[in-house]
């Protein structure tokens, strides 16, 4: 009958639609997302818990920075006679967590157990799976040899992460899979301990991240952390031959990427010179980070991160910072355009990190925003600095969950095979909330002194008229000129807001007629120093890592030095506010 024919046709259409849906789902499922994950917090977390137990106030690098000198880095741990690396922020809801728990029957554990491990593992699993991540890669790149220190820092916490997430899975709770990323030079053995205790434990078989039917072990693409013979042993795994190794590192160029080495983060390259990494996010062209190419010439992996560094992260313009999600958005533009089978993100929860002697010889060779801190000469942070200049996206008390929400939006777009053209209202794609910053160039001319401009057209015109741009002394930016030989970086470029934002005030460029020179003011009357030519932008009234550097007006240094950044002027210094 006609009715039966219609039913049959509808059934066939529905079946076809279902097949198409399954096909699209399968294709979408071919893309996976991984994230760098840290378990190294135990000594530092226990130190912070000791501070609290002694009635102390738990301080982080961000809270020290925001205090504007009322507390210092010395106040974090020194008064409590305890040592550890400083936390840059405090994780939201969990506090200063860690993952060490003594093994069953251990008669002499090397450390006290961390509290609230199950709560930590459960929250992390939820945050990561809700954001679309399929697996974590546990960072073990600093511990090639199994020692008591390595066991407390990473080996036992990695085991505990497996134990906790396996328990959650048995309760029907979804968790990411897990892979390891060990430093494996000649004579190393941490990798062997982890294979024996985890990868060769059958109960963890479904929890280990796999590709092509083999468990994945990431290996640093670094001569100090990789050895061909060790790599062969890892792949053989005692005759099982069930391991696939993937080389992964950062800050390398096309040679390694074209051999399918993965980037655990990948900086933007300059539109002016694609062989140069840049931290500039405002006037340079598309991010265009390097991508990994497999043996068939296809894009295999693309990386993105909330921030990254090309020199020490705590130095001005050596890292772009979060910029309210702008950095992540620009990196994800290529991720979404290419739809490569693998996305890797750095990172979820580094939180702490080491310091090193800065390579720059300029007077900006300290953790920006802390020019007078008693630990000024104790080194600068390399990988992460405070809340802003960090690759992390775990929600924190100081920074909230803005970057987590942008990351979640971006990853889910990637997993669904979408771009911003299809979803312009997604947080990954919106611009009004992120494009709130402006560059300020510093220029000088022998017969006229110095001035600042936030207008790139005016900058170009002034240079054509004989003005010279004052360069920045540290590598990183491409929006500004860089001169690594400069010793004094106080009078260089900076970034402010291009519109009023919370707790900001206008910054006016002022011109005095006779003798003619430019100066700055936060008042439209220019403090009776001249007339206002216009608003350069808006500066913060409180110091934070988003605007860490003090902006001073130099009233007595002469017309060639209208401003100074973070460091005092040679003469009278008037603090106007804070910039980056």
Question: Layout of SSEs?
Answer:
Layout: H1 2-29, E1 32-37, H2 42-53, H3 61-66, H4 74-77, H5 117-130, E2 135-140, H6 148-170, E3 177-182, H7 190-199, E4 210-211, E5 214-220, H8 228-236, E6 243-249, H9 254-257, E7 262-263, E8 268-269, E9 277-278, E10 292-293, E11 299-304, H10 326-338, E12 342-345, E13 355-356, E14 380-381, H11 402-415, E15 437-445, E16 449-453, H12 456-464, E17 468-469, E18 494-497, E19 504-512, E20 517-521, E21 531-540, E22 549-554, E23 563-565, E24 573-579
Parallel strand pairs: 1-2, 1-12, 2-3, 5-6, 6-7, 11-12
Antiparallel strand pairs: 4-5, 8-9, 10-11, 13-14, 15-16, 15-17, 15-18, 19-20, 19-21, 22-23, 22-24
Describe the structure.
The chain is of the alpha/beta class. The protein contains twelve helices and 24 strands. The strands form seven sheets. The protein has a six-stranded mixed beta sheet. Strand 4 and strand 5 (214-220) form a beta hairpin. The termini are far apart. The relative contact order is 0.10. The model is unreliable at 1-29 (pLDDT under 50).
Structure characteristics:
six-stranded mixed beta sheet; disordered N terminus; alpha/beta; four-stranded mixed beta sheet; 12 helices; 580 residues
What is the topology, as strand order, of the major beta sheet?
Answer: 3-2-1-12-11-10
What oligomeric assembly is this protein in? single chain
Please state roughly what percent of the residues sit in beta strands, choosing from under 5%, 5-15%, 15-25%, 25-35%, 35-45% or over 45%. Answer: 15-25%
Kindly state the percentage of residues in helix.
25-40%
Radius of gyration: 26 Å
Q: Please describe the biggest sheet, giving its number of strands, its sense, and whether it closes into a barrel.
A: 6 strands, mixed
Overall outline: globular
What are the low-pLDDT stretches, counting only 5+ consecutive residues below 50? 1-29
The mean pLDDT is 93
> How many separate helices?
12
Distance between the termini: 76 Å
Which class of secondary structure composition applies to the elements?
A: alpha/beta
Strand tally is 24
